[in-house]
Amino acid sequence: MRCYTIQQNNSEPGIYIIWNGNQTVGIKIGSNLLIEASGLLFENIIENKINKIDRISIQRKQDNWFLIKEQSKDQEEILIFVREKLFNVDNTTLIIKTKKDKKIPCPNRMKTINIVRTNRCPLCDVDLGVPIDDYPGNCKYLHPDNGIAYDYEKKNSSNFYASSKHNEIARGINKIDVIDDKKDSMTIFEWLGILSKGITYELNITGSSDIIYLHWSGKELDYWRNPKEETSFIQFTNKNNDILIEEPKIIEPSQDILLTDEQKLVVNHDYGPALVFAVAGSGKTTCLVYRIERLVRESLFPPKKILVSSFNKMAVEEIRSKLMGWSYCQPVDVRTLHSLGLSILKKARQQNYLPLSCDNEDPNTLKEKIVFEAKNLARKKNVHYGDMLDNLDIDDFLSYVEKCKTNMAYADLNEANLPKQWLQEATQAKAPQNLRWYLDFYRLYEEVRKTNNWITYDDMLLEGWESLIRYPEILNHFCQKYSCVLIDEFQDINKVQHAMLDLLISKHRNYMVIGDDDQTIYQWRGADPKYILEFEKRYQVKKYILSLNFRSTATQVLLANEVIGHNKIRSKKNLHLYRTEKGLSQIIPAQDSQSMVNEIVSFLQKKFNEGLLSKDIVILVRLYSQTPIIESAFIKNDIDYQIIGNVPFYQRDEIGLYLDYLRIGLYELLLSEKRNFEIDNAWNAWMNIYRQPPRYMKRKVARRIFEQVKGKGDTFSHALKYHAPFTGNSQKKVLHLAEHLEWLASNINNIEPSILLKNLDQKMKISQYLMNRYSRLEKKEEIQDEIRNFFDYCRDFKNVHELLAHFDTLAESQKTPINSSRRVSIMSIHQAKGKEWDYVLIPHVNHRIIPFAGNEIFEEERRLFYVAVTRAKRFLNIYTIDSEKPSQFLSETDAEKLLQSFYRIESILSSDIQKASFEDLLMLLTHHQIKLYQQILTPWWNSLPTDWEKLFKRLTRLLTYLDRIPLNMNISIPNIKRNLWFEIPQGQLYPEEIDIHEFPGIEKHINQEIQQKIKHCFLSEEWPPKKKVIHSNFGEGEVIMTYKGKTGNCYLDIYFPTHGQKTFQYPPPKGLLKEAIN
C-alpha cells in the first residue's frame, strides 16, 4: 500500500490519499480511513486534483448508512456523484424531521427542513472561522483548510461530517440530521435508506437561492442544483416550514423541449460518422447531450460503450452536469482527452507493457519538477548553455515542449523507436530560431522524465497514442470498449489527439464531432482548423449545421457574420438570429488611449449607478499588456477589478524587475548618505536584480554581497566591486552592475521616474533581455507593449518615492476584501471562449492589437475578434483610437456604416411609413443587405411593427417616380429592380400627376429645369411614361413625360439610348413616332 500526502505538512493529523493497487483509492484523516473510493477517483485526482473529485464511494454496513472509519470486507460500495455544492450556504446545519405517522411509508411523510446559518461547530459551539490548536471538549476539528470535522462520541469511534462546498472537502460543516419516530437522529447516509428508489426529489432550501435535487437509485445518489427548467421533478412544497414530498413519479423529460429542427436532425443521428458545424451560441452542448440521452434511451448503444470527450475541461464538466438529469446516462464515459490518454496508459501498465509510474506526483507541478531536475543534470554535464538556465522562463520553455508533443514532434525521433508504419505521423522537433538550445534542453527534460517514469499532461496524449500503435491488444481493448465516440469542441483538436481518436474509431466509425472552425483560436499551441475542415472528406460523413445563435442580438449577429466572412480557410456558414430582444452594438472612437479608458470608466460608472452587477459585464483584451492603462484608470476612479488569467500589471515579473531596480537604487542612495533604514527590506529586491539581466554571478556570492551591505553598511556598488575579482568570467558584468547602481542612486531624485526608467532600460537593455527569454513572437511583442505602457503609467508620478509608495499601497489593497458586485472582470479573449455576458467591452480595436501584429496566422486573429463579438448577449462596445491605424477587421467590413445602416433601417421600419422621407425610402430600395436581414435576422424582421402593405405601395410608387424623373444621383433603376427584396403589388401604380412633395427631400436631387416640367406634367393616355416607341432617325426609345411649357404649348420627352433625351411637340406629328412592338 502506498500513501501519498495532499498537503505540505505531513505530520499528524493530516489528510492523505492511499492507493491500494486494486483500482481502489482511500482518503485518510491521520490513521483513520475516511472514504474508500472507486478507481475513477484516482484518475480524477491525477487529472483534476483532490478538489475536483467526481466520484467517491461510501461504505454500507448492515441496514444503515455510515461514514467510513475503517475497512471491512463485507461492506458494499455506494457511489455518490459530486457535481456542484450541495447547499449555497456555508457552515450550515440541515435538520430533517418526520411527523409521526406509522401508516404512511417514510418517503411520503411530511418533512420539515430547517437551515441554520452558523459559523460555529454544532457539537461544541467552537468558532469555525478560527483555526484551533487544541481540541476543547469532545470535538476534534481540523479546519479551515483541511475541512473535516469529527467528534468523539465514544472512545475509539468517530463521526465525520464533510462539506460539499465547491465540489471539495472544504471548510465548514453541512450536517444533515433526520429526526424520526424511532430514532433520535440519523446521518444523511442513514437517511438514504428511507428515500424511494428511482425518484428525483426537489428541495427548496430556506435561506438558499438554489434548488437542490436528489435522485436515489438504491446504489447511486445523484445530487445537483438548478437543472433545466423544463424538467419536472417531484417537489417538496414549502408551507409554514413544512415540506411535503409528493407522490412518487418517474421522471422522463420531453425530448422536444427547446430543440430546433436543426438540433433534432443531430439528435436523431443513429450510426456512422457525422460532422456538426455549430456556430457561436448555438446550444451545441445541449444538442450533444440530448443525442447521448436518445442513444441510451432507445438502446442504440449501451451507455458504458459511449465515449464523450473534449480537450476543454469546462466543456466536459458541462456535458457531465447536463447528463445528471438522466440516471440511466450515468454509465456514459465522459472525460477529457487527457483523461482518455491516461486510461490507455493505465491499461498498458496493467498488461505490463509499460513500467509503473510514480503516481504520487501531481501533474500540475510535475513539469516544473522535471525542469528543475533537468537543470541540475545540465550543470552536471557542463552543457554549453548552462549559464542560460539561470534565467530560463519556465512557462515559455514548457509551452515549447507542449507544442512539440501535441504536434508529435519528438526530442529525438530516432530514439523514440516508433513502428516504421507510423514514422510518417511523427516528426523531429525543431528549436526556436532565437533559442537554439531549447531543443538540447528538451532532450535532457525527456531523459529525466523517462528515467523516473513520470507522466505529465502532455505525455498522457502522446504516450497514449504510442501505446495504441505499439500494442495491438491495447488498441483492440479500447476499440471494443467504445462503440460510439462523440467529441465536443472539435475545432480545438491538435495532431496527437486527432491521431489517437482516429485509431479508437477505426473499427466502428460511429464517430460524431461537433465544433466551429470559426472559433479555432489555439493554433499557437497546436490546434489546427484543418482537422474539422477535412473531416467530411476523410470520413465520408453526414454533415449537419447548427446555425441559430441563441445568445446575441441582431447587431452582434450581423457584425459577426461580416467579420468572419472575410476568412478564406473556413466552412461557409452564417449565424442566424434566434432572439427578438433589442440590443446595442456601437463603435466608440477616442482621440488617444487615455481618452478611450476615460470613456470606459464613464460607461461603467453610469451602468453601476443604474444597478448593473459585475457578473453581467466583462472587458476583453487581446493582450494582457493592454491592462496597465485600464487598471490605472480604475485605480484612480476607485473601480474594483480583477484580472482573470493573470495578475494585476504591477505584480507581473517584468514590472517587478524594474521596481526592484528602483528600490535597490534608492537603498544605494540611503547607504551612501549613511541614513538609517531596515536593510532586510532590500533582500527580495536584491535577489531579483543581481541575476537579471544574466550576469552568471553565483547565488552564494550575491548572498555575501548582501551580508557585507547589511553588516558593514557598505553600498551595493562598493560590495560588488569588492567581490568582482572573485566572480571569474562574470567580473565585467558585475562591475557594470556596480556602475549602473551608482548612476541610478545619483539620478534617482533628479529625474522623473518614467524618464529614469527609460534611461535605465537603455543602459542595461532590460526590455531586450525580457523579450529574448521567450520563443513566441507574440509573447515578445506583448512584453514590449507591457513595458511601454508601464513607463507611460509612471509619468503621473513626480519622484521614485511617490511611485514606490503607490505600488506598495496597491499591493496592500489586494489583501482587502472587494465588493464583488461592483468588481469588473478583465480577461483575454482566449479566456472568454465558451462564456457570455450581457455587456462586452473590447478596447484597442486598432491595428497592431486587434489584429495583433505578432501573430503570423492572420485568419486566427480574425477568429479571435469573432469570438469576442459573439460573447455579447445584449450590448457590445468596441473602442477605437483615432490617432492609431484602424483595425482591418473594422475597415474591411465598414463596420460603423454597417451598424448605422442597420439602426437607420430599424428606425424607418418602426415608424409611420407614410411619413418616411425620400432618402429613407430610397435607402430601403437600394440597401444591398436587406435580403440578408430577412434571411439571418428573421425573428427581428418579423417583430418589426411595420405596415408592410403600405410600405410596398410607397416603394413601388417611388420606383415609378424614379422611372419618370431624371435625378442628379448615381442610381441604377434596372439594378434596383433586379435586387428588389419584395414583390411589386399587382396593378398599375403610375401617378396621374407627379407631386414632388409626396416624397420629402426628393426635390434636392432634381434640377430646376426638370422641376418646372414636373409642375406642369400630365398623364397622356396615348403616350404614357415607359411606353416604348420607335423614331425614324433615333431608333427605339422610351417616353419620360408629357408636360405644358411656359408658352402654353405641350411637349413630349423621350429617352433614346443611342441619342439621349429628346423633346418633341405634343402631340407629335403623325408618322414621326411609332409604337414599338414587344
Structural description of this entry:
- By secondary structure, this protein is α/β, with parallel strands linked by helices.
- Helices cover 37% and strands 19% of the residues.
- It contains 37 helices and 40 strands.
- An eleven-stranded mixed β-sheet has the order 6-5-7-16-15-14-17-18-9-8-13. A six-stranded parallel β-sheet has the order 21-20-24-25-19-26. The chain has a six-stranded parallel β-sheet with strand order 29-34-33-30-32-31, with helices on both faces.
- Strand 36 (1028-1031) and strand 37 form a beta hairpin.
- Helix 21 (699-712) crosses helix 22 (716-723) and helix 24 packs antiparallel against helix 26.
- The model is unreliable at 1-256 (pLDDT under 50).
Any descriptors?
1078 residues; alpha/beta; eleven-stranded mixed beta sheet; six-stranded parallel beta sheet; 37 helices; 37% helix; disordered N terminus
Describe the protein's topology.
Blueprint: E1 2-5, E2 15-19, E3 25-29, E4 32-37, H1 39-48, E5 55-61, E6 64-65, E7 76-82, E8 92-98, E9 110-117, E10 139-142, E11 148-151, E12 159-162, E13 174-179, H2 188-191, E14 199-204, E15 211-216, E16 220-225, E17 234-239, E18 242-245, H3 261-267, E19 274-278, H4 284-297, E20 306-310, H5 313-323, E21 333-336, H6 337-350, H7 363-380, H8 394-406, E22 409-410, H9 413-416, E23 427-428, H10 437-451, H11 457-470, H12 472-481, E24 484-487, H13 495-504, E25 511-515, H14 530-533, H15 535-539, E26 542-546, E27 548-549, H16 554-564, E28 576-577, E29 584-590, H17 593-609, E30 617-621, H18 627-636, E31 641-644, H19 653-672, H20 683-689, H21 699-712, H22 716-723, H23 731-747, H24 753-764, H25 766-772, H26 777-793, H27 800-813, E32 824-828, H28 829-832, E33 837-842, H29 858-869, E34 872-881, H30 888-891, H31 895-909, H32 918-926, H33 930-936, H34 938-943, H35 948-964, H36 973-978, H37 1008-1015, E35 1017-1018, E36 1028-1031, E37 1035-1044, E38 1050-1056, E39 1060-1066, E40 1073-1075
Parallel strand pairs: 7-16, 8-13, 14-17, 19-25, 19-26, 20-21, 20-24, 22-23, 24-25, 27-28, 29-34, 30-32, 30-33, 31-32, 33-34
Antiparallel strand pairs: 1-2, 2-3, 3-4, 5-6, 5-7, 8-9, 9-18, 10-11, 11-12, 14-15, 15-16, 17-18, 35-37, 36-37, 36-40, 37-38, 38-39
Helix pairs in contact: 3-4, 4-5, 6-11, 7-10, 8-11, 11-12, 11-13, 16-29, 16-31, 17-18, 18-26, 19-20, 19-23, 21-22, 22-23, 24-26, 25-26
